[in-house]
Hints:
By secondary structure, this protein is of the alpha+beta class. Helices cover 25% and strands 39% of the residues.
Amino acid sequence: xxxxxxxxxxxxxEDLPGVLNRVTSLFRRRGYNIESLAVGRTHQAGxxxxxxxxxxxxxxxxxxxxxLYKLVNVLRVDDTTERATVARELALVKVRADAASRPxxxxxxxxxxxxxxxxxxxxxxxxxxxxxxxxxxFADVLAPFGVLxxxxxxxVAMMRSxxxxxxxxxxxxxxxxxxx
Length: 180
């Protein structure tokens, strides 16, 4: 059986209503669970960028990329799994921190380079940015204090090289399909 592993796809799409639904429905129809999804506008008017992380084998990843290109509003797709990328997530973590435990929680924040962004008498809200492993580790270390709530963005990723395909300067205009 082929080995399935986490794959990161970056899709540039037209910024129109329903595009996110069409893209996520493609993954649902093919039986793939989306591990992480982040969507936002780009600096180019009318273009949004989706970073999608799924578990797939090599053949499945090729089919997903080909099927994404079949969607009308998809301008370009890059499977960045094998490429040099920078990927980050953001998390907000509300942790129990009374007067006695607050210094320890704040010290943990310093170690993980997290920021305390809200202080209440019985809790702190911390903001952390980093890899999924870093955020998992931060949550694990805070668990004994009592994590009251946590919210995470999906991963956002960008290829490292300025020459690598992935720079948005070479995107087709919305309404014009990429020939690649």
